[in-house]
Design goal:
The chain is of the alpha/beta class. The protein is 31% helix and 23% strand. The chain is built from 7 helices and 11 strands. β8 and β9 form a beta hairpin. The longest helix has 14 residues. It is globular. 41% of the residues are buried.
Length: 239
Amino acid sequence: METTAAIVLAAGQGKRMESKIQKQFLLLNGKPLIAHSLKAFEESRIDQIILVTGEDEISYCRKEIVEKYGFSKVTAVIAGGKERYHSVYEGLKEAGEAEYVLIHDGARPLLTEEIIDRALKGAKEYGACVAGMPVKDTIKISDAGGFVEATPDRSKLWQIQTPQAFSYSWIRQAYDKLFSSEEYQRGVTDDAMVLEAMSCHRVRLIEGSYSNMKVTTPEDMAVAEALMNFSGNFRPGKE
């Protein structure tokens, strides 16, 4: 039987949120931000969830989030690292028996079961896939002086989201190689980038959702709440 794991990242400082409370614990529709994406995974076909948080927040997450909201699929709450890729690596080491793994930013609370299903299907079919959506705006590339250097073809551009889903062996080998040299770690921004740089495997783009936004600023909280309550029938876990 194929086993699946989700690594949910909640170890960031969220400095742009301008709050004394870390953004993953701010209340969104009456629940901590992180609880919404955990709920989506809890109600999905994923077998286990690994929550990666700050070392000082482990006890809080276990009691006030995992136990309080009954997330039975959360099998581990572990400490992350200095950078996002450090936290992912810790999660991968904890998920060692899974055949497929989904990696998700806990600051994306509007995740749905449908997106999870598409990501899991993509991982099984292609070995690696990332959720995303075609960009709506024209994108400009600037030079060092702030002038337009190029305008790429918008039809080929996607804004990348999470979850990003992989064959466990593929992404683990890529991360093992990443940590074999500090030189490899420069400029790492997402997991697909690690696989692209550290292996010959290709990454498939799959449909996410324009609503699957990342909460970064106070304004984002307001937008996320509005989207969550749109038409009165949206809730995380369902589209």
